[in-house]
Amino acid sequence: IMKKVLVITYYWPPSGGPAVQRVMKFCKYLPKYGWEPIVLTVRNGEYPAIDSSLLEEVKSIHVEKSKEISFLRLFRKITGKKQIPIHQLSPQNDESFFSKIARWIRFNIFIPDGRIGWYFNAVKKGKRLIDENNIDLIFSSSPPQTVQLIAKKIAKNTKIPWVADFRDPWTDRFYYEESKRSWLTKSVDSILEKSVLNKANGLTTVSDSVSQLMSKHMSNKNQFYTIMNGFDESDFNGVIHKTKLDCLTISFVGNMSKSQNPIEFLSLIDTLSQRDEKKIVVNFVGHIHPDVWDEIESRGLSHFITRKPYVPHFEAIQFMVQSDYLLLLIPNLPKNEGIVTGKLFEYVRSGSTIIMLGPIQSDAAKIISQSQSGFVFEYNNLKGLESIFLEKKMRKEMDTSNYSREKMTQKLSEIFDEYI
């Protein structure tokens, strides 16, 4: 008999971007391991990108939606922005006074985040779904952390076991280093975080470092399980592999925040492109923080860069596979050792060689080392990077199947089984 899990997530197709992939792939593979997902998500959510191509993948999954009072729409009206890409959670140099005020409100008034307007409708809908569907377990994945407060309330009222999943830390989330919060906001948010960590039956995160960071906020001995992100083999079906080109292609796929500025890397590429007869092309696929792009242009480094805005997931995979090298940028901020993006595993599976800029002692660096899929450099120490391009050093061929979404889902299903 299939067991049933209520999956609470804000990001769900047609939402695009990295946030949607983890839960979507769990829901795709859970039935194979005896769990039927029933998804509770938001109606007409505020998403950083839309990718309607993902709807096809989830059409057989039972999905219920509830309305949100959207404070982000209000934020957009105040700032005059049609869309708020993730990178713009960090401030801009030429930011207007209204934008600064709106940002302050977003980070200091809406606790734990701007999605809190979804809370009451989601709790009501979640309770109804449990009454109607004989649910065995609740699973919530954040950010936004509002999702965890919704799950906590439903679990408390229904006495159903609950597993809370964290794709990023909560109060230690890296972009709070760029947008400071008041003492009072941080205190209230810390109380909410502790209440979730201590009340959830099970806790999962994307990396060991995130688990260690978050366990400091707990008073009980609840155990964290690390379930990494991964790649879905079916996403690589039909991709066209690269042909021999007369240029060297380096691609960065995803959103680039202010703290991911690769300016020294690009300066080195500029030097190489002038010395080496082989043309070098750098692709940026996704949103780039305006301040980063302004610096690239002001230093005359845009001549070898091709920019493409957000593309559907399959196209993003195509870019990865057809590149010689893939640039991975870990945000250059404190507490960044545990940042492991879902994209990293698609990079690993693509067969292209990864160049990572970020902490050498980090979870992402460990994965690159174990899979022998590329090279790792600190932002302020690119020594040895030049020789990789000049000598055309490439990754080693390894079995990467341990990083598949299906294997990660199997691990998650075993954790679910423990709690019922």
Strands of the biggest beta sheet: in what spatial order?
A: 3-2-1-4-5-6-7
Structure classification:
alpha/beta
As a whole number of angstroms, the C-alpha radius of gyration is 21 Å
**Helix and strand string, N-terminal first?**
EHEEHHHEHEHEHEEHEHEHEHEHEHH
Beta-strand percent range: 15-25%
Put simply, the count of helices is: 14
| Mean pLDDT score | 88
Helix content: 25-40%
What is the terminal-to-terminal distance? 14 Å
Enumerate the spans where pLDDT stays under 50 for 5 or more consecutive residues.
none
Polypeptide structure, described:
There is one protein chain. The protein has 420 residues and is an alpha/beta fold. The chain has 14 helices and 13 strands. The strands form two sheets. The protein has a seven-stranded parallel β-sheet, sandwiched between helices. Helix 1 (21-29) crosses helix 14, helix 2 (71-79) packs antiparallel against helix 3 and helix 4 (119-133) crosses helix 5 (146-158). The two termini are 14 Å apart. The model has no long low-confidence stretch (mean pLDDT 88).
